[in-house]
Amino acid sequence: MTHHNRPGRAMRQAILAAGAAFLLMSGGCASVSRETTGSVAPALSRPVSQMSVSELNQTVRVYGAAYQKNPKDKRTGLTYASILQMTGRNDQSLAVMQQVAIAHPKDRDVLSAYGKALAAAGDLNKALETVRRAQTPDSPDWRLFSAEGAILDQLGQSDSARVLYRKALDIAPNEPSVLSNLGMSYLLANDLPNAETYLRQAVRQPGADSRVRQNLALVVGLQGRFEEAEKIASAELSPDEAEANVAYLKQMLAQQNTWSMLKDADKKKG
């Protein structure tokens, strides 16, 4: 039997940050519908996960103004909170979701997003309580199972987390965000082969976004396949986006002091 060493808390948090799909995005607020529902906020030009940094910052300003005009609007609040999380403004995202949750106390989409905002802000126990409260046994929601699993993974309870991911997949087979979460769960346990298996499955699914590809690139890079990781990180992107993804990959690998080692090892193979 192979034993895997779990990464320390700091590295676990870094990995979770790297996998934006991992928690923020188990299929909830990052994929808010583009339809307008009486809100003053305009429809998104494209999914939040595919926006550049400048586009995200501009969208934060637009949705910030819309939220100020109508803080009780569900779709505006969910989208605004999601974009704030994508730009690292987790405390502000949580404050927005608290107001949206007050306005919609029984809405499962809102409670799920509120739980994710709590987790992103570091309040994992309250996040877990919120997500569990939103779930209903007679009509279970795969997004809530996935969100709960991601929180449990952050708490170091990977076995319990994977049970929930598989429950989510029973409801939504081959859902890329859940497969990505499952792969990242194995990464947290330093089981890189299993992590790669599930992330490759995730990347092949319709609807898989660039965050899933970044997770796969990270896992491939951590196994020493530097050039392959770069190709994955930059696939199907504009030159600017590809450069940003590769830079992010280097940053994440550097946090384990592995980037230079992988690069040297790759050169020796050539």
Automatic annotation (TrEMBL):
Residues 1-30 form the signal peptide. The keyword Iron does not apply. TPR repeats lie at residues 142-175. Keywords: Signal, TPR repeat. InterPro entries: TMTC_O-mannosyltransferase, TPR-like_helical_dom_sf, TPR_rpt, UCP035836. This is Flp pilus assembly protein TadD, contains TPR repeats. It comes from Consotaella salsifontis.
